[in-house]
Amino acid sequence: MTLTDAAGWLSDRDGFLILTHARPDGDTLGSAATLCSALRRLGKRAYLFDNPEITPKFVPFINEFVLPGGESFDHAVSVDIASPGLFPQGFEGRVELAIDHHPSNSGFGENTLLDAGRSSCGEIVLELIAALAGGITKREADLLFIAVSTDTGCFQYANVTEGTFLAAAELARAGADTAGLSRLFFRTFTRARLALEGEIYSGLRAFHNGEIVASVITLDMVRRAGVTENDMDDVAALPGRVEGHQVSITLRENENGTTRVSLRSGARVNVSKIAALFGGGGHAMASGCTIKALPDKALDMLLPPLEAALDASGEA
Fold first, then answer.
1. Are residues 83 and 230 in the same domain?
2. pTM exceeding the 0.90 threshold for the entire prediction
3. Considering only CA atoms, which of 248, 255, 267 is closest in space to residue 313?
4. Range of the domain at 32
5. Angle (CA) 3 97 274, round 5°
6. First to last CA, the chain
7. CATH label of the domain that carries residue 61
8. Which conformational region is residue 134 in: left (phi greater than 0), alpha (psi within -120 to 50 degrees), or beta?
9. pLDDT tens-digit profile of 280-307?
């Protein structure tokens, strides 16, 4: 679908349930809430699916949009979801419109609005709402600034383009609280989070002549630091601060004996291909998967294909 097609599809229907992905981040939540707000301004019934993994930091921004008990819907729309494996806990059904920016999108939606050149879904939703409703409100500008800024690491990641900055400028013109939101999401941390960061940094591991850096976050580390899920935003970015690395890995132990893996890279390795080997996906420079093993074993499984990819690049 084009933006015009998607805007027309939404205009012709009513009764929307908007899905955010499992372990929701600022992009899926901010983009979905903005779309919900714009649809409501057009007089339509629209709600967010009550994702049970939403962390407290985001609740004040999206709570008014969550589907109340007993309310029905007619059309499911997903935002920032690349595959059905990332559907939120508790949702079962078909998605009629999938809005996404992941090149690994599996095509599960009956209709798809996909732009893999965008840094975030927030950029896509900004243009979609311009086509749908003529523009955004200040409230929507705040939500989209959360989406765009968090998915780009406050405009520091390699996915940032000229279009990202143009979108940010438009959000600022619309009244987004850029200073306050940046302080909240990028400069304010609990003592527990800082304690966990200390353990992460002191336990960093290096491989392949320092080109691969890995951090392991065990359940014991989480308990010692006293962190909650609300403190875990963007922990995958921490090992990527090491000078000279090409690929960073964050391995987080889950309660069920599996490991959540986040991969980040520069231009030499397409980590979405590595994640795909383990049933995951994402972007060329930022991807993830879940491996049915504890972190140390998962790391052993990841290193061979990563090292092979670095060697194949001809610059190892």
1. no
2. no
3. 267
4. 3-186
5. 95
6. 41
7. 3.90.1640.10
8. left
9. 988 889 999 999 999 999 999 999 999 9
